[in-house]
């Protein structure tokens, strides 16, 4: 099972019209991506959450995010559900079940995965979270605030590359530099 910080696996997804859908495509890459893994469409919680995400579409877009319901059902059903709810979200199908397996969501009614622009998992919300929409928006807002451009008081002698190393790895490298010098 993947967890926070892991890279989202490449998955064979299909758009509503049957064409291939790629999470790394130009129109998706560079945005926060919210994947709503809808495992059980008969569960009322799934429908309620899809409605909440639909209503929060403008807030998600304003935060730099894109949300996609990911279904295992045939497209006629998935697209119909989204249209009946009046959702602006574009449904996709995980033909191979790669995402459902990667996040151990096969048996869950709904699992929501928030992905950073660099394709790393930011958060995973399952049955224990009552409002996935609010949790996802909060996660994106907090991260976007940390990534906001800032004026630096002096130029550091380093190249700043966000979201490449974990905080633990950075602390270790700083410790090595501090005690051993530039080796």
Helix and strand arrangement:
Elements: E1 13-15, E2 20-21, E3 32-38, H1 44-55, H2 57-62, E4 65-71, H3 75-84, E5 92-94, H4 98-102, E6 110-115, E7 121-125, H5 132-147, H6 167-180
Parallel strand pairs: 3-4, 4-5
Antiparallel strand pairs: 1-2, 1-5, 3-6, 6-7
- Give the overall shape, derived from the CA principal axes: elongated
Overall pLDDT, averaged? 82
Low-confidence residue ranges? none
Distance between the termini: 37 Å
In what range is the share of β-strand residues? 15-25%
Secondary structure category: alpha/beta
Strand order of the largest sheet: 2-1-5-4-3-6-7
- The count of helical stretches stands at 6
Can you summarize the main beta sheet?
7 strands, mixed
Task: Give the ordered list of helices and strands.
Answer: EEEHHEHEHEEHH
Strands, total number: 7
Q: Compute the gyration radius: what is it?
A: 19 Å
How would you describe this structure to a colleague?
With 183 residues, the protein is an alpha/beta fold. The chain contains six helices and seven strands; from the N terminus they run E-E-E-H-H-E-H-E-H-E-E-H-H. The protein has helices at 44-55, 57-62, 75-84, 98-102, 132-147, 167-180, and strands spanning 13-15, 20-21, 32-38, 65-71, 92-94, 110-115, 121-125. It has a seven-stranded mixed beta sheet. A hairpin with a 5-residue loop joins strand 6 and strand 7 (121-125). The longest helix has 16 residues, at 132-147. The chain starts with 12 loop residues before the first strand and ends with a helix. The mean pLDDT is 82.
């Amino acid at each position: 099972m993947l967890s926070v910080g892991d890279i989202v696996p490449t998955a064979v997804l299909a758009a509503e019209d049957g064409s291939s859908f790629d999470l790394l495509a130009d129109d998706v890459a560079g945005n926060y991506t919210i994947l709503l893994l809808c495992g059980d469409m008969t569960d009322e919680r799934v429908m309620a959450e899809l409605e909440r995400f639909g209503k929060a579409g403008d807030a998600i877009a304003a935060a730099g995010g894109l949300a996609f319901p990911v279904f295992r059902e045939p497209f006629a059903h998935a697209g119909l559900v989204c249209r009946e709810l009046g959702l602006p979200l574009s449904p996709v199908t995980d033909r191979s079940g790669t995402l459902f397996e990667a996040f151990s969501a096969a048996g869950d009614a709904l699992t929501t995965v928030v992905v950073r622009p660099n394709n790393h998992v930011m958060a995973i919300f399952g049955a224990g979270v009552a409002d996935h929409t609010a949790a996802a928006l909060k996660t994106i807002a907090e991260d976007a605030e940390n990534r906001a451009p800032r004026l630096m008081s002096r130029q550091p002698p380093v190249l700043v590359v966000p979201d490449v190393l974990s905080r633990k790895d950075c602390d270790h490298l700083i410790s090595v530099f501090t005690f051993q010098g530039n080796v």
